[in-house]
Amino acid sequence: MFGERSFELVKDVERQMTGCVTGVPTYDENGVRQVLDEMQLLFDQNQKDYNRIGQKVNQNDVTENLDVTMNSSTSTGAQGEAAGVYLRHTALERNKDCLLAYMSTRLERIRDLRWIKGSVLPEADQNNMTEQELQYFTDYNKILANYMRDIGVDGDFDGLDLTEHMEPPKSHMVYFKVLKEYGEFEPEDGKIIVLRKNCVHHLPKYQCETLIRQGVIEILTE
């Protein structure tokens, strides 16, 4: 049945996003290709039928609106072919809408990753994205960086990191516990600390935001 594969794409991406709240699921290249192939077949068949209809009825009727052809008594065969054109065109529109929904859902998550994980994506997320999606993330990252840099340039401060505080901080310095092995981390003072599981450290809250969003640490006190 026309449109079934495209609808499955939409259902799959919604289910995957629910199960993977901090990452982006693998791009379903095979599923997208199947939908595009179906759309090409539908389009090619419509072109053939349209040309045949033009030979059976007045060409002006066909060009102006297929409704005229459907109501024409010139040819029962032409009416049947026109109905087929309508059906396939509807399927084409449905497939297009489903593909756009699939792509839009993924791009929305990719934008979210910039706020959750910072300007450099983990390799696991990069491997699940297409080349075009990686470029989209890079472009979005540049736009956001330029915007944050331009905030306040005519006022008392130069730039503002909008990703610094996802929630209003209660205090400047915080104690935090490392939840998993991370390795070296360099705060703004340049003194590298090694984040090992279950260790506790004390740093300014704004320097911990990215680690918090990545699930590397949890705040103990504020």
Question: If you had to describe this structure to a student in words, what would you say it looks like?
Answer:
Keywords: DNA replication, Nucleus. The protein has 222 residues and is mainly α. The protein folds into two domains: 4-116, Methane Monooxygenase Hydroxylase, Chain G, domain 1 (Up-down Bundle), CATH 1.20.58.1030; 173-221, Ribosomal Protein L9, domain 1, CATH 3.40.5. The protein has eight helices and five strands, in the order H-H-H-H-H-H-H-E-E-E-E-H-E. Strand 2 (183-185) and strand 3 form a beta hairpin. The chain starts with a helix and ends with a strand. The mean pLDDT is 83.
What attributes characterize this protein structure?
single chain, 3-stranded antiparallel sheet, Ribosomal Protein L9, domain 1, Methane Monooxygenase Hydroxylase, Chain G, domain 1, about 220 residues, 2 domains, two-stranded antiparallel ribbon
